[in-house]
Design brief:
Layout (H helix, E strand, L loop, with lengths): L5 H50 L5
């Protein structure tokens, strides 16, 4: 999806984000996005481990 952006496009996006949101809000937004991704990854791991545990044969 983002393979055609390239370095100049990425720089342009970062400059526009800096202009729109300002230097104070940008780190806050980055932290919020990072926390969201971390929580999503944790939930995904828990869900896959639950499914794997459910499919294991029961030991007697």
């Amino acid at each position: 999806m983002f393979s055609n952006i390239g370095v100049p496009g990425l720089i342009l996006i970062l400059v526009l984000a800096l202009i729109i949101f300002g230097p104070k809000r940008l780190p806050e937004m980055g932290r919020a996005i990072g926390d969201t991704l971390k929580e999503f990854k944790k939930s995904t791991k828990e869900l896959t481990s639950d499914v794997l545990n459910e499919n294991e044969p029961k030991k007697s």
